[in-house]
């Protein structure tokens, strides 16, 4: 590990103790069949199209213009949005405002300890977030300015990216940034003919590689961000291999799931409006 | 109880506006002051001078520990310098550690005070830092014990020259409230000697 | 109207409030904000806690890893605290390496840990000179509204109390280690240091300041108390305090410490 002069450094080499656990000799295939029944029922009792219970709250960071906290069962993400500010180090005029996204996993949020600096995965997720949110915001309303959006994953139990995008949409609305539409995002994990909406970390891990060679070797992760009113897709991210038929049925599942979340997002924002109206009345 | 042996040599460096080689007991530092100088656009304050402190360790690059020393030095200097006299400028205090025998922070602060006096910058008051130690046998002394394991706690106080009030306090180890009071009054007595020493050093120059 | 007044004349706004013996958020000078502690909500960490002091929120996650002890301290493990002030928590910060404030906070928390001696590093050693635990305690501030150190220390102590380490079998001859993840044991934390921050403004001492009060104040003092003893009195300069004022702060912080210790204890029992 490189020495960081701005932090307290631990010993040069340290190894996660999980590596020395009594070895788990089960093949990935048996592991997968243990957590997903043939009829699609999963380890936590959900059906394959069922989303986890969502907890959503606005106004969690007092110092930020807008903020939101989302929980998908164990997955916990906090997002804050700040006032538009001038784009740093830019001299020429840009007619559209910019969105700056930073996605970060807390060091203790995953099984393996994350380092403090942003790694390649986090940078990629930041870029995906930016793309997803750009089309939801009236960027022409703040030319030459940028809006900062920071997402921090406190606990990653799968679908952290889509949780962050959904929460960022809510935080943007909470900050009063003009938007075309509400944005929600859902993750899909695919393994063989199993399509699992809103996967846990364990399910995500087992969908990284093809396990069922004899069938079509569909496998992978899809993250879809949807603008609710006209069912427009603002961002699509896929890793792994998917056949066209599998993908189209997957997208249908995801848009349906996204629709369910929109009602929740609306409810959350209405609650915020009622609260602020009450404060003004008092 | 032995008084601390302090010695100093003012103006040892030619480039800075004020400089000093200062040693107290076995601890030695060099301090340099630049100022008031033009400050960077993002640091300039409209109504007062911006005080910057840089602490360089004996070897290697400054780390997190040195950042804490810097913040103490900066805050103390800021309290003593008449910052309102120099708006939109910077005063830079640079401290180089030469040898550390336990009372590094107080030595650095005293050196900073002497360097500021040497530079002729306007100050509201002088300040003097005094460190004292509690041994395992509960005795209170100024000179650090030879063996580090003997120390129960360390106290560092900074006093101003006008009212002899406390500008800064920093401690190490755990201790009772009574011990803290004792250390405070002991250091308060000692700080008068420091101020005398400052005055004497400046007259000689 | 008061919002505009606050932005245009922050100092006068503050002074007017204090003249009426009340703080802008409605508290009295010696009144501290409510404290909330939650333990063990992050299962990927070996110990975790969230502390809220007023609106200041700090989450602490402790992850344990295996390493070789230092040659000069062959029978000791490591406890590495780091305070992170991400741009998320306040508009004062920008993305990039830790700011000076974060570094100073990191060092203060490390000093408090060392001074209070609340965790004997020898208990983290598994086999002298060969194998020891390294606990990475990462403190992340989610909302910065003053009294950062207070919240950090509460979160860190609560998290340390909730840490459980798995049993390790080590064979020094073969350098072979085996970990039994199911069999977990708690750490033995011997005491609970509690930090209290005071801000001074115009000769008035305010306990547990908010970020606005901290910015306007001329001096800050942080006092750490553990079991009737003091283990840290930190005043990094600023305007002067008299001896009586400082000792009054010590007295106040001792009172507050017993209350907070109870809060942590209750949170720990409900775990």
The number of distinct β-strands of chain B equals: 9
Overall geometry of chain B: globular
Instruction: Output the CATH topology of chain B.
Output: Ribosomal Protein S5, domain 2
Would you identify the CATH architecture of chain B? 2-Layer Sandwich
Question: How far is it from the N-terminal to the C-terminal residue of chain B, by CA?
Answer: 30 Å
Largest sheet of chain C: 6 strands, mixed
What is the H/E string of chain C? HHEEEEHEEHEEEEHEEH
Quaternary organisation: heterotrimer
User: Which protein chains make the most extensive interface, counting residues with beta carbons within 8 Å of the other chain's beta carbons?
Assistant: A-C, 45 and 53 residues
What is the count of DSSP helices of chain C, taking H or I runs of 4+ residues? 6
Structural overview:
The complex is a heterotrimer of chains A (about 280), B (about 200) and C (about 270). The mean pLDDT of chain A is about 90. By secondary structure, chain A is of the alpha+beta class. Chain A has helices at about 30-35, 120-135, 160-175, 200-205, 245-280, and strands at about 15, 55-60, 65-70, 75-80, 85, 100-105, 145-155, 185-190, 195, 220-225, 230-240. In chain A, strand 8 and strand 9 (about 195) form a beta hairpin. By secondary structure, chain B is α+β, with helices and mostly antiparallel strands. Chain B has one domain (about 5-205): Ribosomal Protein S5, domain 2, CATH 3.30.230.70. Chain B is built from three helices and nine strands, in the order E-E-E-E-H-E-H-E-E-E-E-H. In chain B, the strands form two sheets. A five-stranded mixed β-sheet of chain B has the order 1-2-3-5-4, covered by helices on one side. The longest helix of chain C has 27 residues, at about 245-270. Chain C has helices spanning about 1-10, 10-20, 100-115, 150-160, 210-215, 245-270; strands at about 35-40, 45-55, 55-65, 80-85, 125, 130-145, 165-170, 175-185, 195-200, 205, 220-225, 230-235. With about 270 residues, chain C is α+β, with helices and mostly antiparallel strands. In chain C, strand 7 and strand 8 (about 175-185) form a beta hairpin. Chain C has one domain (about 30-270): Ribosomal Protein S5, domain 2 (2-Layer Sandwich). In chain C, the strands form three sheets. In chain C, strands 1, 2, 3, 4, 5 and 6 form a six-stranded mixed β-sheet that branches. In chain C, strands 10-9-11-12 form a four-stranded antiparallel β-sheet, with helices on both faces. The mean pLDDT of chain C is about 90. Chains A and C meet through strand 1, strand 4 and strand 7 of A and strand 3, strand 4, helix 3, strand 6 and strand 8 of C. Strand 1 of chain A pairs antiparallel with strand 3 of chain C, so a sheet runs across the interface.
